[in-house]
Amino acid sequence: MAKYDSDLSLLFHALSDPTRRALLTRLAAGPAPVTELAAPTGLRLPTVMRHLSVLEEAGLIATSKDGRVRSCAIVPEALAPVRTWLDEQRNIWESRLDRLDSYVMKIMEERAK
């Protein structure tokens, strides 16, 4: 059984929801107050706050409070473990496909003889 990184699981869980991905996309343009983030979703503020707490728990965003205004900012370096894992998976599958290609070419050459 493969060893799973709990942080990686948190990241993938956070990224699994389209609303959370939309919030991250918006935050990629710059920090924003929670009310601004909630407006285009059509969701109630407590629901958006739950989504933001999942993103914050995964380390994808940081929140701050100035008076009564809570703002969020993206933490881009938090995606590094996801990028690393995906790169490893891509390398594994490219290697497998290269070996399969070599095997198929070898069989085709043998049949051509």
UniProtKB/TrEMBL annotation:
One Pfam family recorded for the sequence: HTH_20
All copies of domain HTH arsR-type, residue ranges: 1-94
Entries under SMART domains matching the protein: HTH_ARSR
Species of origin: Gemmobacter caeni
Protein name, per record: ArsR family transcriptional regulator
A single GO molecular function term of this UniProt record: DNA-binding transcription factor activity
Coiled coil: none
PROSITE patterns registered for this protein in UniProt: HTH_ARSR_2
Lineage: Bacteria, Pseudomonadati, Pseudomonadota, Alphaproteobacteria, Rhodobacterales
Gene3D superfamilies named among the record's database cross-references: Winged helix-like DNA-binding domain superfamily/Winged helix DNA-binding domain (1.10.10.10)
